[in-house]
Design a protein that fits this description.
Strands 3-2-1-5-8 form a five-stranded mixed sheet. By secondary structure, it is of the alpha+beta class. The longest helix is centred in the N-terminal third of the chain and has 41 residues. It is built from nine helices and twelve strands. Bound molecules: dinuclear copper ion. The site of dinuclear copper ion has 9 residues, from loops.
Length: 367
């Protein structure tokens, strides 16, 4: 009777250990796999008009992102070794010491206390954790303590529900959702140092190929930097849940080849185009409440709640990356932003078709 009970509990015990290991391993592997698939395939199509929407930390193209990539390889390698050793020993033990004929009624040797074994399984994990702490701390220190060179570009990024305001205080430029920076060459470093601020709730600024994510917190100024080493368009998104349209608070960093960034700056510093052919639309725009929220440089429109429209048509997308910036999409957006991005602060202005056509014609002239 007592030997039956022993066998049943022994079997249950082994099954539960094996089950726990399978569950926990498949949970971690499954999560890693899901994150990989989600970041590689599922997220990508939502980046309107992005040429190469890479959102992987495993393809770094910027100095801080490269440092983070290297430390993550080390951490992943150490964890993989631990996983294989623990899983391997567990599988070996379960198979090697399984119940065999003749085991009935016999308990395996009972071991109570072994200084050597206990020392080993205490000291080895401590050493591993110390290695991880030291290596991670060094990377964090290297990234965070970087001193801006005298000619580094400075920009301020302000998180809003649900778009990014981007300011270049020294250059007198204000834009939205697209951070333009120069490329770093091996002969000439051109890092960009960012000040991160929030106009409302907590957001998080993350462009995976360029740097780690940094939270954007109200009443606080966080700093970070990027140093892209290849020209191109890099996509990112808000990485902290900030309300209904959090998932559509996309951003892109446009890295200009040498000499090209200066041209972009010069174009952005120009006042808004004043095209007499769209005078009707201009008047319609300035007589509605558009100007309470939007600014057009050197006009009476100086609202601060929405994106600056001075060079609206120089941008690739509308609604923080939700749709590409075409005449047709612009018209749909102005007619009813809530249809495209429910919950956004911009209301349906109830324009008549004529007014809509005029306002859109004026906006299209803001190149
Ligand atoms: Cu902003 Cu999430």
């Amino acid at each position: 009777m007592s030997s039956d009970r022993f066998q049943v509990s022994d079997l249950r015990y082994r099954i539960s250990i094996l089950g726990f290991w399978i569950l926990s391993s498949s949970w971690s592997l499954g999560t890693a796999f899901f994150l990989f698939i989600a970041t590689t395939f599922l997220v990508s199509p939502t980046f309107a008009a992005a040429p190469t929407p890479v959102t992987s930390i495993f393809e770094p193209l910027s100095t801080p992102a490269q440092a983070i990539y290297e430390i993550s390889l080390l951490v992943l390698a150490i964890c993989a070794v631990i996983f294989l050793v623990v899983g391997g020993l567990l599988a070996y033990t379960i198979i090697r010491f399984r119940r065999r004929p003749g085991d009935e009624g016999r308990e395996p040797p009972q071991v109570y206390g072994s200084n050597q074994i206990e020392l080993a399984w205490t000291v080895i994990p401590i050493l591993i954790v110390i290695v991880l702490i030291l290596a991670t701390t060094r990377t964090i220190y290297d990234v965070q303590s970087a001193v801006p060179p005298a000619d580094a570009l400075n920009a301020t990024v302000v998180g809003h529900q649900w778009w990014w305001e981007i300011r270049y205080p020294k250059l007198g430029i204000v834009t939205a959702n697209e951070l333009h920076v120069p490329v770093t060459e091996s002969s000439k470093r051109k890092p960009t140092f960012l000040k991160l601020e929030s106009a409302d709730v907590v957001h998080s600024f993350w462009v995976p190929q360029l740097a780690g994510k940094t939270d954007v917190i109200p009443n606080r100024r966080n700093v970070m930097w990027i140093e892209p080493t290849q020209p191109g368009t890099y996509v990112g998104n808000c990485a902290e849940y900030c309300g209904l349209q959090h998932a559509r608070m996309l951003l892109r960093v446009i890295v200009h080849p040498p000499g090209d960034f200066e041209k972009w700056v010069a174009a952005q510093q120009e006042p808004a185009v004043d095209n007499p052919q769209v005078r009707a639309g201009r008047d319609a725009f300035f007589s509605t409440s558009c100007i309470n929220c939007h600014a057009v440089k050197e006009t009476k429109a100086n609202g601060k709640f929405g994106p600056d429209l001075t060079h609206l048509m120089s941008r690739q997308t509308l609604g923080a990356g939700v749709i590409s910036n075409t005449a047709e999409n612009l018209r749909a957006w102005v007619r009813d932003p809530q249809h495209i991005k429910p919950g956004a602060l911009m209301p349906n202005m109830q324009l008549t078709d004529d007014e809509l056509n005029q306002v859109v014609a004026y906006l299209l002239s803001l190149k």
